[in-house]
Amino acid sequence: MKLKIFLISLCLVTLLSVACGGKKEGTPVQAESGGQAGPVKIVTSFYPIYIMTLNITQGIPGVEVVNMTQSITGCLHDYQLAPSDMKKLQDAQIMVVNGAGMESFLDEVISQEQDLKIVDASKGIELLKNESDGEANPHLWVSVSGAAAQVKNIGAQLAAFDPDHAAGYQANTAAYLEKLENLGKEMHTALDPVKNRNIVTFHEAFPYFAKEFNLDIVAIIEREPGSEPSAGELSETIDTVKKAGVAALFAEPQYPAAAADTIARETGARVFTLDPCVTGPLEADSYLKTMEENLAVLQEALK
């Protein structure tokens, strides 16, 4: 009888030990040999990085992707973290960022969430410099080849940080890279024969795009988004447009086009809209669709 009571007590102690020894909430549970990988929450810094990460993670059980700065209508220039942003990061294991200086708040995130693994989408990629301030230009994703390089980075780093889902990340990365490669070929076929390659862009979001498709940005209307050009800068841009024979000015859907409209009235150039892919539907194919629309706009503007 005493032996029976002892065995029952031993079983109860064992069960309580297992129940109390679980993982802390928000920490990924690593798969045991032959077991299932635990849930992984990935937070992305802003829209284009979210779309890339969504493609790399889609269909992988247990992996959730959340975009931190959901309300951003443009780039992250001078963005200040909100309490709601930090709340999204509290139970995340991985954060994917654009890098190249885009996320000015990154140091604050790292200091407050020291266990958070950071995936840098721009790691090791050669960066262009802004003409205005000589700083690195972070808008890699606006170029199709730049986006492809960032996708490779994200896929490789996610696989390294989360080996339990590595096979899924690698397969999805390869599939999305194939789509981007086909898009790039389509755009080159359409744009390579264009003769008049001089364009004016709204701000410094398109240097990588222009380099990829051999377009010449002869002027930039606003060096900083939201900062209207001075009367002198506007006059200088108008002179440049006239001298270079620019037929097309490209505004962006996220910002007012008043300055572009003024230049158009003074020069006879037409205003078109190019989308730098910083906002849009939260769908895996939205980047591809936006770039297809940009291609159609360029074909009309430069014909």
From TrEMBL:
<dbReference type="InterPro" id="IPR050492">
    <property type="entry name" value="Bact_metal-bind_prot9"/>
</dbReference>
<protein>
    <submittedName>
        <fullName>Zinc ABC transporter substrate-binding protein</fullName>
    </submittedName>
</protein>
<keyword id="KW-0813">Transport</keyword>
<feature type="signal peptide">
    <location>
        <begin position="1"/>
        <end position="19"/>
    </location>
</feature>
<dbReference type="GO" id="GO:0030001">
    <property type="term" value="P:metal ion transport"/>
</dbReference>
<dbReference type="Pfam" id="PF01297">
    <property type="entry name" value="ZnuA"/>
</dbReference>
<dbReference type="InterPro" id="IPR006127">
    <property type="entry name" value="ZnuA-like"/>
</dbReference>
<comment type="similarity">
    <text>Belongs to the bacterial solute-binding protein 9 family.</text>
</comment>
<dbReference type="GO" id="GO:0046872">
    <property type="term" value="F:metal ion binding"/>
</dbReference>
<keyword id="KW-0732">Signal</keyword>
